[in-house]
Design brief:
- The chain has 944 residues and is of the alpha/beta class.
- The protein is built from 27 helices and 38 strands.
- The protein has an eight-stranded mixed β-sheet, with helices on both faces.
- The radius of gyration is 32 Å and the shape is flat.
Length: 944
């Protein structure tokens, strides 16, 4: 078969690093003519049984003809991929395009035969499943829509790989062979399977780092001091339960210990396995250490060494080489320039960090890209006084440093079903893969709270040396999209800790109704005002007076919690003359015992100069991790369910002693944390029934695809002209009012006669478009005389017709002018935006956003999310407009962008929403070739 030269070009974008089921990494890449020796060596290590399953007959060795066939591909009709570890093959897959009858074919044939071979030592690691995802993506890219595979009935492992993939399949049995045929178009089930496998693999890769059975500190100094020796001491002081080794190549002859820890000159000299290596040597020595670790079978690295991307271009390249080297051995990296990791679980007790004191065990997971912020977070959570109290503790802590490999996404995968973590707190300076982060955040937030503060949000600073896709969306838009995914977005580290402490130990409020009680009328009023400012519904404060005893507090709190019109209680407390520590303890016990009687409602304390009370409130009989309190049944939706999705463990109710009451030094901080918990609880309830993406019978998806393909094939530029825009939108049931060009007064009159009076005359020049306030629009022109007079006025005011680009359009029914916009952002993904049209809305930034695809419930909330929404619902006696028609328009635009990734921007402006129906008066559409891979593609690690 003859092929053009470009069909033989090596497809470098098919190369990818993947995480396997056991948490190790491997590389997927195309097989080339240079791989003949690797292929032969690989085949020699495969068992006779596996060879028989592949070729249906004894096949002890590959002939020269076989080797040629399996290494020579055109990367279109014949493609082979290999999985490599340490540069050597551990698995291969191949497809051959076939036509009717199974004969070799070329495009437009859209079926291919596929076959796998996995080395026996690597079977059970999920290698074939990962390969299937990648070869399916390659096939789709090359126009293949269906795979066929013939498998012996005894090869149950391979049959299971195909059957479990989630694709639409047909299965038949003939001549002693099972024939499987399956479409490659992703389905809801195939994506659920893929995401579940991704979660298990990435969570396992982080688990291997956080729960190692043995640790080696490479670069531990022989004398006290220095980074390596400090980390070694911190691991010892935390009471690490596994095997600990020190490595220092400068050990003297006969020297076998450093600080009481067994020591060796090299990782290679350690007897037994090493799961985690903490690398604290100069950057120029790190490659040697990585080789030693890889050859010894180390599973992961924490690189605290600096001198990488934090030190300039040379260091950036050194960092890339480090990641490539570690992944070639199947290892993952935290760092470089990392502060370290902590796991307080009693069965681990690992403090492999530069933090001199391990935090108390607890239920909060911490992730920080910055070591300095990590220190601040640990310090604030550890302190009992001088700030937020009611301290719980930390389950795990990861400071990623330069974030060259392991990122916040990976840690989220681990926390999702980690039984020791109930609340996740994250400090992010950037989000490397926002689409994935949003997807993971939505799933995690359905099971446990996720609180995020983003640093450098106005400066756009990316982690050193890490390629972060730049977003074109404003920070406020990205924040709104994250909140839609269930993320609790806060602005400061203080707010991060405030919210985390409340969510870690208190149930979610069932609503916004707040009772306020305390011994200070003024502090109660401040709390009341703060509640109103945060959108809560406070009851009038109950003043117990300064003479209130602990028994009075207990009785008042018990009554408030028993009140069905109350969802949460804020207790305010100020010191009274002569009160001492015993009084503080008594008050704390009174509040705790009252709260325990109604455990389904959260309680917060606002204290003023009551350090003793704060400490007493945070005291517990045990510092061991306790289970998180269950939210009320009506406010705790189940996590997204699918046959392949792992379900997180159900939280259990804590003991009375373990229910800590968070205390805050200011009413505003307590109320802000409570408001965030209320909003999150509302999101949890709504996410249990997110709605559906409706189907519309009049949508012509195929016709739209043909229009888009034709435009891109003609290379006519990204923007569709007006006729093509109207035609494409019409395929999705969106009608745009005709606008006829009017380069002269006579053309305007002819256009008006064709459309019918009354008409509108508009200038469409960029500086006048959609700017009725500048006078570039004339409405309700009833006849030709008015039209010609308006035309003359426009040209007199603004210039020649060729500068104004005037058009004539039929009048639409009066209503409210709105704006609908959809955009595919390179970082954040596809987003739908809505707002009222006009300069006031633009000036105030009053626009709401939702991630695409939008459900019917999300469309309903979207139009109600803008501050100017009352104008749509009959504000000040005006007629309410047809919001149902507006919701349908939003859903149709969402479907268009979701169905066709080539549509990168849609703007409908203005959309006039009348009491009955709506009119789209202006529209623009921009197209671009779709990316070779998108979020529906196979699992991959960030490329280096």
């Amino acid at each position: 078969m003859q092929t053009s030269p470009d069909r033989h070009a090596y497809p470098a974008h098919w190369e990818a690093d993947v995480v396997l089921r056991d948490g190790g990494t491997a590389r997927v890449r195309p097989i080339t003519v240079d791989d003949a020796e690797r292929l032969v060596s690989f085949y020699e290590q495969v068992s006779d049984e596996s060879k028989y399953y592949r070729f249906f007959a004894p096949y002890p060795r590959l002939s020269a003809k076989d080797v040629h066939r399996f290494t020579h591909h055109d990367f279109v009709d014949r493609v082979g991929l290999a999985v490599t570890v340490g540069g050597e093959f551990i698995a291969t897959v191949r497809y051959d395009r076939i036509g009717p009858g199974g004969t070799p074919a070329s495009a437009p044939a859209d079926e291919a035969e596929v076959a796998f071979l996995v080395q026996d030592a690597h079977q059970g690691r999920g290698v074939a499943s990962a390969l299937l995802e990648h070869i399916a993506a390659v096939a789709r890219e090359r126009g293949i829509r269906r795979f066929a595979a013939e498998v012996l009935p005894a090869n149950t492992k391979m049959i299971k790989v195909f059957m479990d993939a989630g694709y639409t399949q047909k299965r038949s049995f003939e001549d002693g062979v099972v024939r499987l045929e399956f479409d490659l178009e992703p389905t809801d089930r195939s994506l659920a399977v893929q995401y579940a496998r991704e979660q298990r693999a990435e969570a396992r890769s982080v688990q291997r780092l956080l729960q190692p059975g043995s640790v080696a500190v490479v670069g531990a100094g022989r004398a006290p001091g220095g980074v390596g020796r400090s980390v070694l001491g911190n691991i010892l002081d935390a009471g690490y339960t596994g095997r600990l080794h020190a490595v220092n190549r400068g050990l003297a002859e006969g020297e076998t210990e450093i600080g009481g820890v067994p020591a060796r000159r090299s990782v290679r000299d350690i007897d037994g396995p090493v799961d985690l290596a903490v690398v604290a040597v100069p950057a120029e020595r790190v490659p040697e250490v990585v080789d030693e670790c890889g050859e010894h079978g180390v599973q992961g690295l924490v690189v605290v060494s600096a001198g990488y991307a934090d030190s300039g271009p040379e260091g950036r390249e050194r960092q890339r080489a480090l990641v490539r080297q570690a992944r070639s051995y199947g290892m993952r990296i935290i760092g470089p320039n990392a502060f370290g990791i902590i796991n307080t679980a009693p069965e681990v007790r690992l403090n492999a960090s530069l933090a001199p004191e391990s935090p108390r065990p607890g239920r909060i997971g911490l992730f920080a890209q910055s070591g300095a912020i990590g220190i601040a977070l640990l310090s604030r959570l550890h302190r009992r006084g001088g700030g937020v109290t009611g301290v719980t503790g930390v389950s795990t802590f990861v400071s990623s440093g330069n974030r060259a490999d392991v990122s916040g996404n990976d840690v989220l995968q681990y926390w999702y079903d980690d039984p020791h973590t109930d609340v996740a707190l994250m400090y992010l300076e950037s989000i490397g893969n926002p689409r994935k982060f949003t997807r993971l955040a939505r799933r995690t937030a359905a099971a446990k709270p996720l609180v995020v503060v983003q640093g450098a949000r106005h400066g756009g600073v990316a982690p050193q040396g890490h390629a972060v896709r730049a977003t074109r969306l404003p920070h406020a838009t990205v924040s709104a999209l994250l909140r839609q995914a269930g993320v609790i977005r806060v602005d400061t580290i203080t707010e991060l800790v405030d919210a985390g402490l409340l969510l870690a130990r208190q149930p979610l409020p069932a609503g916004p109704r707040v009772a306020i009680l305390g011994n200070s009328e003024s502090l109660g009023l401040l709390t009341y005002d703060a509640c109103l400012s945060e959108g809560l519904r406070p009851q009038p404060p109950l003043d117990l007076t300064t003479a209130a005893s602990p028994a009075d507090f207990h009785a008042a709190l018990a009554r408030a919690l028993a009140d069905d019109t109350c969802d949460a209680v804020v207790v305010t407390a100020i010191p009274t003359p002569g009160e001492g520590a015993p009084g503080d303890a008594a008050l704390a016990e009174a509040l705790r015992s009252a709260a325990a009687e109604v455990p389904a409602k959260p309680v917060l304390v606002v204290h003023v100069e009551l350090g003793g009370l704060a400490e007493a409130l945070s005291a517990a009989t045990s510092t061991a991790p306790q289970a998180r309190p269950a939210a009320p049944a009506e406010s705790a939706p189940a996590s997204p369910a699918s046959p392949a999705s792992p379900a997180p463990p159900a939280p259990a109710a804590p003991s009375e002693e373990a229910r800590l009451i968070p205390a805050y030094p200011a009413a505003e901080r307590a109320v802000r944390a409570l408001a965030q918990a209320v909003a999150y609880g509302q999101w949890r309830r709504e996410s249990a029934d997110p709605g559906r993406v409706p189907e519309y019978d009049d949508i012509d998806e195929k016709g739209a695809a043909e229009l888009i393909a034709g435009h891109l094939a003609r290379a006519e530029g990204p923007a569709l002209d007006q006729a093509a825009t109207c035609e494409l939108l019409a395929r999705y049931g969106i009608r745009v009012h005709r606008a006829l060009p009017a380069p002269t007064p006579d053309d305007a009159a002819e256009a008006a006669r064709a459309l019918g009076y009354p008409v509108a005359l508009k200038a469409t020049a960029p500086h006048l478009r959609h700017r009725a306030d500048l006078g570039g629009v004339r409405l309700d022109l009833a006849d030709e005389e008015q039209l010609r007079r308006a035309y003359a006025e426009l040209t007199e005011l603004f210039g020649r017709p060729e500068e104004l680009r005037p058009v004539v359009q039929s009048m639409a029914p009066r209503g409210v002018d709105t704006l609908v916009r959809a955009v595919i952002d390179p970082a954040a993904g596809a987003a739908l935006s809505f707002g009222l049209a006009g300069p006031a809305t633009q000036l105030l930034g009053d626009t709401a956003h939702r991630l695409i695809p939008v459900t019917d419930r999300e469309a309903t909330t979207l139009i109600r999310s803008v501050r100017t929404a009352p104008l749509l619902f009959g504000w000040r006696g005006s007629a309410p407009v047809d919001t149902k028609a507006l919701e349908e328009l939003l859903l149709r635009v969402s479907r268009l962008v979701d169905d066709h990734p080539e549509v990168v921007a849609v703007t409908l402006e203005p959309v006039v929403v009348a009491p009955k129906g709506l009119s789209v008066l202006g529209a623009t559409v921009r197209l671009a070739p779709p990316p070779a891979r998108d979020d529906l593609g196979p699992r991959t690690l960030p490329a280096y």
